[in-house]
Structures are given as structure tokens and as C-alpha cells.
# Entry
Amino acid sequence: MPRLTSDRRHRVAFKLNGRPAEGLAEPRMLLTDFLRHVLGATGTHVGCEHGVCGACTIQIDGLPARACLTLAVQADGAEIRTVEGLAPAPGRLSILQESFRTHHGLQCGFCTAGILMSLDELLTRRPDASEEDIRHQLSGHLCRCTGYGPIMKAALEAARRLRGPAGEGAPHA
Ligand code: FES
Ligand code: FES
# Structure
């Protein structure tokens, strides 16, 4: 349980993309605001702020979650992954990110961080995911630019590379 400080904010500490992160949060502060405004991790986007658009999707303990529906204090002690944690090394992209670049899976990019975090979870869990599985996963995301076609192409290519003969490893490898 997060510790309460004298000004009634809570100290919240978790692993963010494999590194310790902590800060103070009022009890009703959303995890999106904590990530962006307290920790400076602005890769996570905020759209509708009520769980509909999927822009704020991150991974909490390995599962996709809406950061706009999560209180910062609920994340205390968790393992959090955000889009900043997808690239395997500076200057490199994950297989999924490369596929998005190749197939123009983004235009304005507002939806992209959330979509990548959802697809990364699916393809880590199921590199053999079918087109239907991918469509199902994407059903939790709104994109106003792409018409979804390039996103599907990118996801299918990433899945194909991940389950190829040699297998190229996890989507974030
Ligand atoms: S901002 Fe969280 S679902 Fe839209
Ligand atoms: S790329 Fe603009 S909303 Fe999806």
C-alpha cells in the first residue's frame, strides 16, 4: 500500500520499463497524468479519458490496461511498460515498430502508442495470432487516420516474422 505523506499525497513506486520510478500522487490522480506529468513519460497518449479510444493503453504486470482508468496509487509495486520501453536498444526498433514503419501503420500517431502496447502483448503471448485475433485485439482502439488497413498489414507482418522458421523472438526483441 503506498505511504501517505503529510500533504496527503501518496508515494507511488513501480518499475517503469525495467527501471525504478517513483513520485507523489494525490489519491485520485490518474496513472496517465502520473506517467506524463510526474515522471515525464509522455509517450503514453491521452484521448477520451474514459476508456473508449485506447490511446492510453500500457502494460501493467504484462497485461494491456487503460492508464486513464487506473489510479496512480493502484500501480504501486507493479511492473509498468509503456511505448518508451518497446525499442530493444537506443537507435533500434522492435520488430513490431519496424513493421509499422514499413507499412505506414501510422499517420498522426496519436493512437499508435496504445495500439503498439496492445499488439506487443498479443504477439508476445501468441506469436501464432491469426488475423481474427489481431482484429479482436485492435477492436479496443480507435484510429481516425489510417482506416486500419496499414495497421493490420503491419501486425500481420510482425506476426509472420515472429513465427518464421528461425523465429525472431519477442515483438520487442
Ligand atoms: S484515453 Fe484512455 S481509453 Fe481513451
Ligand atoms: S494514426 Fe492518427 S489516430 Fe491513428
Summary: The chain has a mean pLDDT of 94. The first strand starts at residue 3 and ends at 4.
